[in-house]
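Fold it.
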Amino acid sequence: MFRTCALAAATVMFLLAGCGKPQAGGPARESVTLKGSDTMVPLVTPWAEKYMAANSATEISVTGGGSGTGIAALINGTTDICAASREISAEERKKAEAKGIKPLETTVARDGIAIVVNPANPVAELSIEQLRKIYTGATAKWSDVGGPDAAVVAYSRESSSGTYVFFQEHVLKKEDYAAKVRLMPATSAIIQAVVSDANAIGYVGLGHAHEAQGKVKVVAVRMADGQPAVPASEKSVLDGTYPIARALYFYTPDPPSPAVDKFIEYCLGPAGQNTARETGFVPVK
């Protein structure tokens, strides 16, 4: 069953305490755990903070680590909500159902995968094919794509990341990443690497690119040679012109608990969707 939507580093946990304690005789405190996509941490953290500010009896803990980590936690019954930047696979769904968990999918926002380079790099545009060659190792020098005579240093998330999987499927055309591609445990580590290395390139969610404005340069992407290069933005994701865009999901057991259901309703409501826009993501409503 699918919910209809009109919907950190592996060791880092954000424990978001509710703002104030319920009065004596007030409602019992509710606890919600949310785990998964590192890409979505800049979005789900303010969602949780703002929700708790208005609902002092609810405590929400947010943990990153990757979509695969979140889905595994959902299957094992150790999280109430899995945040995922990719769809759950048929195999993962089968494992969940074997444990009596029927995953319910909710699209909570949309995202573009931004290509980022160091501001000193003169390259401003790349095609999907050029990106494929960079990340599969066929292109080794920036001079092959209009840049300086220097080796390309490519950064990627680890394989537990939904962004890693999506990028491999939609940009690499399911080819393997080159052995020399440097796998990072968190999107923030990719940003830092690009900031520190003039020859680096990485891919990050729009929310992380939004946070890193002025520190990295976002490269426009063209679907194919001869087509216009399109910058990653809310507008280009919504109108379908940006070639590396995707949905972002919450997965919960079906049915979710009342506390989880109320939180997801908030995320999909006007306030939650406005937060998505403010943090550099793309609302679904």
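Residues 41-54 form the longest helix (14 residues).
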